[in-house]
Amino acid sequence: MKEHPKIEAGGLKLDNALWLAPLAGVTTPPVREFFSRLGAGLTHTEMVSCAGIVRGNRKTEGMLRLLPGEGPVVLQLFAGDAASMREGAEAAIAAGGRAASSEGASARFAALGVNMACPMPKVTKRGAGAALMNVPGIACEMVRGLKELGFPVWVKTRKAPSGDETDTLRFAEGLLNAGADNVCIHGRTPAQRYGGRADRSVVCAAARRFPGKISASGDVYSAEDVLEYLNGGCVGVMPARGALANPYIFPLALKALGYDVPEERLNPAFEDRLLFLRSLGESSHEINGPRPTVVLLKRLLAGALKGSESAAALRRRAGLTNDLDELMHILTPEKSR
Fold first, then answer.
1. How many C-beta neighbours within 10 Å does residue 273 have?
2. pLDDT tier at 71 (50, 70, 90 boundaries)?
3. Residue 309 has what pLDDT?
4. In the predicted model, is pLDDT for residue 282 greater than 60?
5. Among residues 224, 222, 226, which one has the least CA distance to residue 203?
6. For residue 11, is it left (φ>0), alpha (ψ between -120 and 50) or beta?
7. Whole-Å CA distances, 28 to 32, 59, 67
8. Pairing of strands 43-49, 73-78
9. Burial 135-149 (b: 16+ CB within 10 A, else e)
10. pLDDT above 70 coverage of the chain, percent
11. Separation CA 107–CA 309 (nearest Å)
12. Which domains occur in the chain, in start order?
């Protein structure tokens, strides 16, 4: 098997071109660690409110936590104006540095991310997320402000609200000219939210237009999906919901790309999958508490156990409990059958 040197993307040197997308309520430190062990070359925090950071909101500040030695991690932020984005980013960098120092770790964010993709009203009504696609001047001002902080800037956005390819390319070009190091395009318009099919052609058109600068998201459920985006010119691919539906997309896609992947990661035994989930549950409980951990494990169960004859029965048992201790008991290999 040939050696794979690190790739250069978004102002960073990374192990590979397969990265975990930001997922609200999901990409906490234990989840990021879980997918890094499966082969993700980069991960993201959840979408973090700049207003919450500046106000010193305890829950928001908790979203800035990095595990000792964790990385590379992109801190994804959202705000409705450039001043708030800059202020929130500065506060996040300071808070992250203090947290790292207090834990004796040297972890820090690899890049600053801007969410210009979230289509949900609770975000867009603040002028943030996908609403920024309607005000490209503000969107570009945000990028310029963050670049002054000395970090690579990553933007996650969508197909233009008009649905027109030219408008999508024009918006991406503006962000890149403002200094963005990577622009990830999700091939749905804001109005589509997460329905219908993601338009891969518009993402790959942008990748060909701006070589080495465009990554892809949207309907990434298999190794074949990853290859299609990369062969279309994208510098990286970010599974999101597809990572939850099939966490093992990471080792499977890396194998398809020619990486040397241990066989036990490609098709783990049922018992090993359970132990992997239990490990996630233990670390999540320590950081997030029991209730969020139960929700997380239930959300990952189907994908993590996909293809096993015992999976359906275990999922039914797991669905009947909201108690973490009982759920962890169910996930014990000798108790799962």
1. 23
2. confident
3. 80
4. yes
5. 226
6. left
7. 6, 12, 10
8. parallel
9. ebebbbbbbebbbee
10. 94
11. 41
12. 7-265 (3.20.20.70), 268-335 (1.10.1200)
